[in-house]
Amino acid sequence: MAVLLETSKGNVVIDLLCDDAPRTCLNFLKLCKIRYYDHCKFFDVQKDFVCQTGDPTNSGDGGASVFGLLAKDDEKLRYFEDEIHATRKHDKIGTVSMAPRGRNGNASQFVITTREGAVDALDGTRTIFGEVSEGLDVLRAINGVYVDENGRPWQNVRIKRTIVLDDPFDDPPGLEALIPSGTPPRNEEAEDDRLEDDFDVEAELNKDASVVEEEKRDREAHNRAVVLELIGDLPDAEAKPPEEGLFVCKLNPVTTDEDLEIIFSRFGKVLSCDVIRDFKTGASLGYAFVNFEHRHEAEAAYFKMDNVLIDDRRVHVDFSQSMHHLWKNFKRFGKNGGTSEDHDAAEGKVSSRGMKRTFQGSGRTTFELKSNAMGHISGGNAAMAMAEDKRDRDRDKGRTRDRSRDRDREHKRDRSRDRGREHKRDRSRDKDRKRDRSRDRDRDRDRDRDRDRDRKRDRSRSRDRDRDKKRDRKRSRDRDERDRR
Fold it and tell me: Which residues form the RRM domain (predicted)?
């Protein structure tokens, strides 16, 4: 009669005392057989005292006996009675006993003593049903783990699985339906802030300095991204610039976007190529953004075109880190970004200011705005493009002015209507108040009249009682005088 517990610290064999506690041993063996204890944590480790486990919820408040499980979680059968013997004591390390919720409150939780000597405080209150025969070194390792002030280990210690080595009891009816075909999956706890049992502390401590530094930089970068999101400089902390985009700088002012598009098109399909210009003069600012259809095309252009001579200037090529287009997309569609429906909505549509919106890749989540307002596509006629842009802005201002007048007019009309409604509502409210006050006065008058009537009746009854008492006293005196005579 023994059970093997495979824990994250090693294997422990428990010999069961079936003669002293048959019902408790039956419960323990059958729970092990249905893999009830798999993935249970040692959630309470009190150094040199006991370690407690057996609760699938890992909180200390859960667990049920096999009898309760067979009875469809009947609360009356969730617990079973104690089997305490005066001769059995917690007199050595590795003594296994139940962890009841009270008298006759045994379910599935149990404790194992970790003190080398006796643990007298548990004698007479717990059902002892086994002792550790193998794996005392594992038990000492569990006893030595780091815990918080509540005894919960900082690194989880789990029962990975249980193996029944010898079972003298027959299976209760219905138990076979509860036996799983394999090890049940572990339920991940979303709010668990502890290191998992498979976390290698030694490997973490012996990690190479370069790896530690790289992880530190990644964490710092993420923290900075979170701060930028909070202050509004990034649409989302996890947002990343498109991997298909390149940044080209140190350009000759005479280089146009058409020239760059022709040069970079040898590496793949160029979706957009924009030389950035001054919005007033239209002069080139010496840098541009080139966007390809696929990432490998951008990588090939990056390796081949860096430090290349273009129009007597050696240009520098790097991957773009601009979030401009992501910001535009974020303002339209939120953190989810553009979808295929957004792509269909934007495909082929041109705004009033000549901004053609094209979707960067089928099913992608970013919009790429390709502008011809500054003459990037139409041959570089910046002056004409600027004049057209000015006309568009003036027309937009006029429309904005008209809309503002319409809003003011509608606002005045709405306010007049609101005042009329409020006046009617106030008059109706005043009528209701007057009617309520009149009803209250009538009610108070009736109540006062009834109270006066009750008082008069009470005074009349009091006078009658006094008159009766006087008459009775007089009769009594007359009777006494006759008796004396």
Answer: 244-322
Q: Which two tokens stand for residue 368?
A: 């790429």
Sequence length of the chain is 485
**245-380: what CATH class?**
alpha beta
- How does pLDDT run across 267-305, given as a tens digit for each residue? 999 988 989 998 888 899 999 999 999 999 999 999 999
Chain-centroid distance of CA 168 in Å reads 47
Residue 93 carries which DSSP code? Answer: T
Q: What is the pLDDT of residues 196-253, one digit of tens each?
A: 877 776 777 777 888 888 888 888 888 888 888 888 777 777 777 888 899 999 999 9
Q: From CA 400, how far away is CA 411, in angstroms rounded?
A: 16
Give residue limits of the domains in the chain.
2-183, 245-380
Distance, in Å, from the CA atom of 302 to the CA atom of 358, rounded to the nearest integer, reads 23
Do 75 and 167 form a contact (C-beta atoms < 8 A)?
no
CB 316, CB 250: distance < 8 Å: yes
Q: At what angle do helices 257-264 and 295-305 cross, to 10 degrees?
A: 100
How far apart are alpha carbons 425 and 411 in whole angstroms?
Answer: 21
Cα separation of 483 and 476, whole Å? 11
d(CA 390, CA 280): 11
pTM of the model: 0.47
